[in-house]
């Protein structure tokens, strides 16, 4: 059974940083791309970043490129999102999602429950 | 650039049919996917590759595609179907990104 469990969210001041984690089980990170999606309060889903199953390819939304970094640790079965230079508009629930293919930018067949990032002074 | 457009809201009575549309140029080149998100819960995929239904999703959920528009149809709507629904596709030509529609709030009257 596929399971995804996010952690690492919290309250942070503008300009601050956090490291979000997504612990996975039930599949191999080598076989599927992984993605972070966020939902700001009162708004819709927004794609943030994707890492391919090979780990060679990473993709970012324009709104986070240069500030966020996606990575993974195969041995720990965990995907990370390092979020830096945070802005108030980054406030959202961040979801980890498993894609249905190795290449990335396809679709999401399993989702975690999310972790809340609040950026406020 | 590719965008996906959905109506902000759709309202139906129990037992009726709800149709939620999603329009965008990307849909002529890429598949569409649909997700249901109930309040306080994670999204769940209800349709993939335009019209395929994942295992465990009730048969009353179906998808169709025509040109630049895809449609999620919920037949015999139940109170438990009240949720936000999002269409999704991707752009791997102009730029490499995933695209979500703005979401549609389905209200069961």
Structure description:
The complex is a heterodimer of chains A (121) and B (109). Helices cover 0% and strands 50% of the residues of chain A. In chain A, strands 2, 4, 5, 6, 9, 10 and 11 form a seven-stranded mixed beta sheet that branches. Chain A contains no helices and eleven strands. In chain A, β5 (46-51) and β6 form a beta hairpin. With 121 residues, chain A is mainly beta. By secondary structure, chain B is mainly beta. In chain B, 0% of the residues lie in helices and 45% in strands. Chain B contains no helices and nine strands. Chain B has strands spanning 9-12, 18-23, 33-37, 44-47, 61-66, 69-74, 83-91, 97-100, 104-108. In chain B, the strands form two sheets. In chain B, strands 1, 3, 4, 7, 8 and 9 form a six-stranded mixed beta sheet that branches. The radius of gyration of chain B is 13 Å and the shape is globular. Classes of the chains: A mainly beta (121), B mainly beta (109). The interface between A and B is medium-sized, with 22 and 25 residues.
Order of helices and strands of chain A: EEEEEEEEEEE
Which whole number gives the mean pLDDT of chain A?
A: 97
- Tell me the helix content of chain B: under 10%
Number of strands of chain A: 11
How many helices of chain A? The count is 0
Query: How many β-strand runs of chain B?
Result: 9
Strand-residue proportion of chain B = 35-45%
Q: What is the beta-strand fraction of chain A?
A: over 45%
Rg for CA atoms of chain B: 13 Å
Oligomer: heterodimer
Structural class of chain A: mainly beta
Which geometry of chain A do the CA atoms define?
Answer: globular
Q: What composes the largest sheet of chain B?
A: 6 strands, mixed
- Residue windows where pLDDT falls under 50 for at least 5 positions of chain A: none
Radius of gyration of chain A: 13 Å
Number of helices, where a helix is a run of at least 4 consecutive DSSP H or I residues of chain B: 0
Query: CA-to-CA gap between the ends of chain B?
Result: 36 Å
- Indicate the overall shape of chain B: globular
What is the string of helix and strand elements of chain B?
A: EEEEEEEEE
Whole-Å distance between the termini of chain A? Answer: 40 Å
């Amino acid at each position: 059974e596929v399971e995804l469990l996010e952690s690492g969210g919290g309250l942070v001041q503008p300009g601050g940083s956090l490291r979000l984690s997504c612990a996975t089980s039930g599949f191999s990170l080598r076989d599927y791309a992984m993605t972070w999606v966020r939902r700001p309060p009162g708004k819709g889903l927004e794609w943030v970043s994707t890492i391919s199953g090979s780990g060679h390819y990473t993709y970012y939304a324009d709104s986070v490129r240069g500030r966020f970094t996606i990575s993974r640790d195969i041995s720990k079965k965990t995907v990370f999102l390092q979020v830096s230079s945070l802005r108030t508009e980054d406030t959202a629930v961040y979801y980890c999602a498993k894609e249905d293919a190795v290449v990335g930018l396809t679709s999401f067949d399993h989702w975690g429950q999310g972790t809340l990032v609040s950026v406020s002074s | 650039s590719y965008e996906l457009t959905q109506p902000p809201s759709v309202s139906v009575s129990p037992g009726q049919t709800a149709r939620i549309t999603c329009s965008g140029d990307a849909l002529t080149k890429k598949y569409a996917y649909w997700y249901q998100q109930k309040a306080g819960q994670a999204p769940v995929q209800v349709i993939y590759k335009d019209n395929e239904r994942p295992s465990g999703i009730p048969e009353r959920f179906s998808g169709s595609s025509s040109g630049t528009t895809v449609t999620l149809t919920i037949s015999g709507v139940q109170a438990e179907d009240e949720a936000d629904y999002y269409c999704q596709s991707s752009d791997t030509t102009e730029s490499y990104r995933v695209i979500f529609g703005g979401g549609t709030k389905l209200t069961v009257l």
